[in-house]
Design brief:
With about 575 residues, this protein is of the alpha/beta class. About 40% of the residues lie in helices and about 20% in strands.
Length: about 575
């Protein structure tokens, strides 16, 4: 397999000592941990207190978000008049949990409410004509979209012609008219999208809410019962963690409190999913949420009809929950098999390329649309490049794009919009549709766009939270790092760097892993470097610089261990 790009530049974040001391006094943390706070934009006393306070349930005012006031009144009127309401959701974990949140909230208010989840293959992404037809079929007069709708011009126009009021709740970027340099919004009764709100409170980071988060804010505007709102945070946490949103501000609070609910297992569906997935009682961390629960909730929407996932999430019937939960487990296995097949074919295409370029663009005939996004993520992570994966059928290429912090994939797609039939999404994830015979033109142009928007060397810059000596690494620092959990976009697990580490010994262990002991100024620490056995030949008798995350090795009496992320021969410089 082609090697991932390794010519990375390590950039050490540095802050004035006086300011670090100021932050340290306010936070009560060490200078190293205070640097991490500053790196995440957490600098004021208010921001620091909100970030570090794990107990306070402090929600922003939902009416700060444009459209909520108008939507609130329309929904209340619908409930009073016993109008039938349809929630139009989406097939991924964010859309499914957003649907469940709004459904449960409206049922609490005794609303006559139904939901519709589109089929990825049959209906396509988001709010579409199928949802409008279903609304008419069941006699609904009000439709509320979740996690979709902001670019559904055709479906919303059709809904209006059918006499339906539609409230759009979404968090995706609206359509941008490059000619007029302005956003274009569809026709709807009300539009709730923090991305277009006229007011902003950076204190809560409202503009970074997930689809589930936006649905929750609408429910918050309708319900005064704090206990009921708290009970929904497990679903909000799932949607927030599953989508590409920042976990600073209110999203962080959603995750903290939501993960506590998930750990306690109060919701039948979550408790059964944990049991079937092999998660032990009392053992629940970000890893379990991101890599065990979320894939099972996501899987049906990738390879089957995900409607029953919402049924599972809101059901009180143990037998029904268990049946659906086992099915999601089976769907996840099916998804894994399909994903591995597509990934193998994509990697083979990359192997056959004469030059990797600045962006990876691969395509295959009838690749399953449910996995192209995951494959794009894996390629982007492996090669440190923006990646675009397309499935081709009947002359049409449909695909997904994935990127990372230093390249805005949505901005890149705007530069290629004349080649595309449709696109939309986030800065780091997007969906694309175009004619298949334009793939090569797209590949060539996207390579130029990547170069234009971000210099190649900048694309491979790794931001390091702090340069430390081994003597600075102790259990107190690791305890402070745990205060930054849950980790995610905008609050990644802290990454440290250290220079002139003497390699005392090393060996290859397990499946392509490297274990070594390093020494600096008399202090020796054990290290593990996953999937880095290829570095072994460069270690003998060498001094190295390393990037790492300090952890406690539970298998060895909580001994301090460095999880190595990158190694290079020691340079003595800062980058």
């Amino acid at each position: 397999m082609r090697k991932r790009q390794t010519n990375q530049r390590w950039l050490i974040n540095k802050t004035n000592d006086d300011f670090l001391n100021y932050v340290s006094r306010i936070s009560g943390l060490s200078a190293i941990s205070s640097q991490i706070l500053v790196n995440r934009g957490i600098k004021t006393p208010e921001q620091i207190r909100y970030f570090l306070n794990r107990d306070t349930f402090c929600l922003s005012d939902p009416f700060l978000i444009d459209g909520i006031s108008k939507a609130n009144q329309r929904i209340k009127n619908a409930i009073v008049k016993n109008e039938r309401i349809l929630i139009s959701g989406d097939y991924d974990a964010d859309g499914l949990t957003a649907t469940a949140i709004l459904y449960e909230g409206l049922r609490y208010l005794n609303a006559d409410v139904y939901y519709f989840i589109p089929h990825r293959i049959n209906d396509g992404y988001g709010f579409g004509l199928s949802a409008v037809r279903y609304a008419k079929q069941i006699g609904a007069s009000l439709v509320i979209t979740v996690d979709s709708g902001i670019t559904s011009f055709e479906a919303l126009s059709y809904a209006k012609s059918q006499g339906l009021d539609v409230i759009v709740t979404d968090h995706h970027e609206p359509f941008w008219d490059e000619t007029n340099k302005s956003i274009v919004l569809p026709e709807a009764y009300a539009i709730i999208n923090p991305k277009i709100m006229s007011q902003s409170e950076d204190y809560f980071n409202i503009k970074e809410l997930s689809g589930a988060g936006v649905a929750f804010k609408l429910v918050q505007s309708l319900i005064d019962d704090k206990d009921k709102l708290m009970s929904l945070l497990d679903l909000v946490a799932i949607g927030t963690s599953a989508d590409v949103v920042s976990v600073i501000g209110e999203n962080r609070m959603f995750l903290q409190h939501g993960m506590k609910l998930i750990k306690e297992g109060g919701r039948k569906s979550i408790a059964v999913l944990k049991d079937i997935s092999g998660i032990k009682d009392g053992d629940f961390r970000s890893y379990h949420l991101n890599f065990i629960l979320n894939p099972r909730i996501n899987a049906p929407g990738r390879v089957d009809d995900p409607t029953d996932v919402v049924r599972m999430l809101v059901s009180d019937s143990f037998s029904e929950v268990e049946r659906i939960a086992r099915w999601t487990h089976e769907m996840n296995y099916k998804r894994q098999q399909i994903e591995e097949m597509v990934l193998r074919e994509a990697l083979q295409q990359i192997e056959n390329m004469e030059e990797l370029g600045n962006a990876i663009v691969v395509s295959g005939k009838k690749w399953h649309l449910g996995v192209v996004g995951i494959v794009a993520s894996r390629l982007s992570e492996n090669y440190s490049l923006p990646s675009f994966v397309f499935s081709v059928e009947d002359g049409i290429a449909k695909g997904s794009a994935r990127s990372f912090d230093s390249f805005n994939v949505l901005e890149g797609l705007k530069r290629c919009s004349h080649l595309l039939d449709r696109f939309g999404g986030h800065k780091q994830a997007a969906g694309i549709t175009m004619k298949a015979d334009r793939i090569e033109d797209f590949r060539a142009l996207m390579n130029e766009v990547v170069c234009e928007l971000k210099d190649k060397s900048e694309l491979q810059t790794v931001l390091v939270d702090s340069l430390v000596d081994l003597k600075d690494i102790n259990t107190d620092l690791i305890r402070e790092i745990s205060l930054f959990e849950p980790f995610g976009n905008g609050n990644k697990e802290p990454l440290f760097g250290s220079k002139l580490l003497e390699v005392l010994d090393y060996r290859i262990v397990g499946n392509n892993h490297l274990r070594l002991n390093v020494r600096q100024k008399g202090k020796i620490i054990n290290c593990i470097a996953f999937d880095m056995a290829s570095e072994a030949d460069n270690l003998a008798g060498r001094f190295i610089d390393a990037l790492f995350r300090p952890t406690l090795n539970e298998q060895y009496n909580n001994q301090i261990q460095l999880q190595i992320r990158a190694i290079r021969p020691s340079t003595g410089g800062d980058t």
